[in-house]
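Much of what follows relies on a compact textual record of a protein's fold. Here is one such record, which you should read through line by line:
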Amino acid sequence: MKIQSKVATFAVLACLGASSVFSYVLLSPRRTWDSPPTLIVDNRGIPSIADGDLGRTRIRNAIVSSSAWNGAGTGNRVNATVGSVSAWRMGDGRPMLNFRDPVGACTGNCLAATFTGFFQSRGNGTNRITDADMVTHYNGFDWATAGEACSGSEIFAEGVFVHETGHLLGLGHSTVSGATMFPTVSFCNNGPATIEADDRAGINDLY
């Protein structure tokens, strides 16, 4: 994710491939989880979030909400729990949302990034996701959740991490403005926390 004037752009660290009918984009090569992954949400929270919980619970709840990927019509797609990410390591088979960026992947205007390059062939022409991890440029921006008033120059965390969870599940960036997987978001806009028709079509294509 990157800030450009009053717009933030999402970053995904992977190659993308376009879908044939809709405007959503799937990661290339196409890949899915064998079963719903459990994302560990960093229990340190984001210091600038003033909702009384540093955002931990609201972000976790947004990720598993029926307004997001678990409500797309294909059943439960992702689980999440708040816990320690002290053992955060890419490729270890434990998806984690790190509210810091231990590898320095998200600098400058980047808000958050997801590492999606961990997958393997199932041997039948399909690919199995084995890990996906997120990092956050937490100290470069003012963050908020729906549990507090937005000042006008803050980024709503729920929408950011529902978007990043779309990458974790195998989606790239949509070209549909207003979709959760659209690559930009304005300040104080939590719209991406609720998936739209294009997002639903993409996740239903995958799963």
Notes: The domain at 2-206 is CATH 3.40.390.10 (Collagenase (Catalytic Domain)). Residues 94 and 131 are 6 Å apart (CA to CA).
